[in-house]
Design goal:
This protein has 379 residues and is an all-alpha fold. 82% of the residues lie in helices and 0% in strands. The chain has one domain: MFS general substrate transporter like domains (Growth Hormone, Chain: A), CATH 1.20.1250.20. It has helices spanning 4-22, 26-32, 37-45, 47-64, 67-86, 91-119, 125-154, 156-166, 171-175, 190-197, 199-228, 233-258, 262-283, 289-312, 320-349, 352-358, 361-376.
């Protein structure tokens, strides 16, 4: 019989597979509609407005009510958002779809991460987060290639509508699980504030935020750039798939290493990510672009489980949902600011390469800031 933890691992993988069928296609869909770069960036990043707003609420409800019920609600909202996207004919409806999707991920992701920690035995939090992270990476690996193929065959709108229906098939798998065991706080306690003030948590949050700014800004306009260079949907899908597949190979091992030295492995991951972004700047287009994708997979495979472990491994048991929601807001800040900032650069200079050149600098600076702390502290 499949354990409850692995049922949620599979459900998480399927959730991110279906999300990643759609997300890489949105900038290309917008380009096909004739939308300008700044508005493409705004539409791509609008998900973060609602995600930032609802993540703390989702985290608190996860601790006080039910992790699995919030995951189910998140799935239902993702389905609704993709129905809106399938029916969209303007940038306004694309933004509405992304706002709905923001609420969905705000409810789903913190509960998924917190449930992995709940099921983890003592001393194996990093390993269990590594497995949960691996399933997320599997979704990122499968989704873009599948989405690229579907959009080539079926068109954008049909792809969005079919995905909206398919994502609902995850709900029975989640409902078959018993609630992840966790203590329920009777009210807001000082443990929440203690967790937020932890230097480990702050460093992890900042590292995730900077990575997200650079990655989402780069991905949005790399996708649009390849569209303008007459590359099809399969090429950008393959870029994301190679990155995610490479990341899969290392996440569990990185999680185990992060159980010992989480700050050091977080810093190492950021450095490798910086190298990958520089390779994107150098190569720009396939097939050499896929070298950058391989390097990025290694970097994200190290960074993501390490950063999660740094933030949450020592979190109080009855505030993990809340703290994971705040931690993952780093993604939202990056999603909200990265694409518009890069869009301003592209539109003001008329040059996509200027935006590409900024990406490697951001994670490199943070890696160098983290390194002295990581070398002085062995936990």
């Amino acid at each position: 019989m499949i354990s409850y933890n692995w049922r949620l691992n599979i459900a998480t993988m399927l959730f991110f597979t279906f999300v990643q069928v759609v997300v890489p296609l949105i900038p290309r869909y917008a380009v096909a509609m004739g939308i300008q770069p700044f508005m493409i960036g705004l539409a791509s990043s609008s998900i973060s407005v609602t995600a930032i707003t609802f993540r703390p609420i989702g985290g608190l409800l996860s601790d006080k009510w039910s992790r699995k019920n919030l995951m189910v609600i998140g799935i239902a909202l993702v389905s609704a958002s993709y129905i809106v996207l399938a029916l969209s004919r303007s940038v306004d409806t694309i933004i509405i779809s992304r706002l709905l999707e923001g609420v969905a991920v705000a409810l789903f992701i913190p509960s998924s991460i917190a449930s992995a920690i709940d099921y983890a035995p003592q001393g194996r939090v990093g390993e269990f987060l590594g497995w949960r992270s691996l399933t997320i990476g599997a979704g990122f690996s499968l989704g873009p290639a599948l989405g690229g193929f579907m959009s080539e065959v079926l068109g954008y709108n049909n792809t969005f509508m079919i995905t909206a229906l398919l994502v609902l098939t995850i709900i029975p798998l989640i409902m078959s699980c018993k609630e992840a065991p966790h203590s329920v706080p009777p009210k807001l306690t000082k443990e929440y504030l203690v967790g937020l003030r932890s230097l480990r948590f702050i460093l992890a949050f900042v590292s995730l935020m900077i990575y997200s700014v650079a990655w989402m800004g780069l991905l949005t306009f790399l996708s649009a750039y390849l569209k303008l260079q007459n590359y099809g949907d399969l090429e950008i899908g393959l870029f994301v798939t190679i990155q995610a597949a490479t990341s899969l190979m290392i996440r569990v091992f990185a999680g185990r290493a992060a159980d010992v030295r989480p700050c050091l492995t977080t810093s190492m991951g950021l450095f490798v990510i910086s190298v990958a972004f520089f390779a994107v700047y150098l190569f720009e287009v396939p097939p050499l672009l896929y070298i950058a994708s391989l390097i990025l997979g290694l970097g994200s495979g190290i960074h993501i489980p390490s950063s999660q472990t740094l933030a949450l491994a020592k979190a109080p048991a009855n505030s993990r949902g809340f703290l994971s929601s705040i931690y993952t807001m780093g993604l939202d800040v990056g999603n909200l600011s990265g694409p518009p900032l890069f869009g301003i650069l592209v539109e003001s200079t008329g040059c996509y390469q200027v935006a590409f050149s900024i990406s490697p600098v951001l994670p490199l600076i943070l890696a160098l800031i983290l390194l002295p702390y990581a070398l002085k502290n062995k936990t």
